[in-house]
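The instructor's notes for this session suggest beginning with a concrete chain rather than abstract definitions. Hand out the sequence below and ask the class to guess, before any prediction is shown, which regions might be ordered.
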Amino acid sequence: MNDKESNRILILKLSLYLISLWILLFMLIVLKVNLEKLVWPMTRNLLKELIFVNTIPLVCLILIVLGIMGYILFLDTLNNAKNLPVEIQECESVNYENLSFLATYIIPLVCFPMETGREIFVMFSVIIVIGCIFVKTNLYYTNPSLVLLGFNVYKVTCKSKSAFGGGIVILKGKLEKNDNIKYMSLSDNVYFARRL
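After discussion, reveal the predicted structure:
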């Protein structure tokens, strides 16, 4: 794998993690947005105050936009999968792992107090550490936001051992035994795929 491909895969992994945080980021915007300074006519000083009191929602909004850009890259990667099609011998849904991610990480982080600068720093540090762990351990596919967008995660075994013998497949829609898929490797055991 060349450097360009390695960088693209790293960006895809980070994008998948950002996408998994959409629910948390949206909830933080709702909890922290302050529109008291939103008055007309808007002066430069009022605009600065509005931005200052809404720093956390603005950071969350920027992360959501970066996630949207990553989602577009993710879809482009799926559409340009170059490997030959393979036939699925066995498949099992592992979407339940998305629920454990939601219950274990997202919900507790929403309840995290963010009143002081120290608490905000700790919150975003936890998000960064969890992201590093997810990317290093290839668990970024446990993504509740992708489920909401119509993607499913399957543990599969393929008939063709010359391709990949088995692994985790992220795919839009449903997958069944004997379906044919085109795939792209994201790591040694995680693949993007689309049904043919």
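Then share the key points. The chain is about 55% helix and 20% strand. The helical segments are 3-20, 22-32, 44-53, 55-79, 96-110, 117-136, 144-148.
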